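WARN retry 2 of 3 for item q-0093 after timeout on previous attempt; input resubmitted unchanged.
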Amino acid sequence: MCRSIKVLRRPGQQPTSQELHDAALQFVRKISGYRSPSAANTAVFERAVEDVALASERLLASLKLSASASK
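OK item q-0093 returned
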C-alpha cells in the first residue's frame, strides 16, 4: 500500500480507463486504510473509486500544457 501512484499526465496521450481506475483504487485504499472493504462498505468503497477516477479524467482532460511540456 506504500507504492507511489503513477503519473498519468503524458503529453499527447490520455490515460486508459484501466490506468485511471487503478490509480483511483490505490488512492481510495490509501485514504480509507482498507486494502479491501468489508461487505458493509463495498458499495461506498467502489463508488469512491469511480468518483476519483472520473474526477481524475476531468482534471487531465482540462489541463493546459505549456509548449515546453509538450516536447
